[in-house]
Design brief:
Elements: H1 2-6, H2 15-26, E1 30-31, H3 32-39, H4 43-55, E2 59-66, E3 69-76, H5 78-96
Antiparallel strand pairs: 1-3, 2-3
Length: about 100
């Protein structure tokens, strides 16, 4: 059991971070406003969780202008994808202990 628990990533303990990574795992790149709408969170709340994931190198940030409007988009890094998959595998193993 201890080995399984070690597979859980502290960075994904919060539901918003779990949601961010879930969205980024199935999309190549997602902009800030789309993430905010899907997760139904405030700008500040989303920004703080994105910074935490960026600090861990789990996501990459791209800032650009589309026309005259700034656009910030996010993508899961290879490190982030690996960590998230390990987290999901550990959760699945825990759930399967009862079967």
């Amino acid at each position: 059991m201890e080995k399984i628990i070690k597979g859980l990533q502290k960075s994904f303990d919060h539901r918003i971070r779990l949601g961010i990574m879930s969205v980024l795992m199935v999309n190549d790149r997602v902009d800030f406003n789309s993430l905010k709408e899907v997760l139904e969170v405030t700008d500040g709340n989303l920004a703080s969780h994105l910074k935490a994931l960026e600090k861990e190198s789990y996501i990459e940030v791209r800032k650009q202008f589309i026309g005259r409007k700034p656009n910030t988009s996010y993508a899961a890094t290879e490190i982030g994808k690996k960590a998230f998959n390990e987290h999901l595998n550990a959760l699945e193993q825990i759930l399967n202990l009862r079967k």
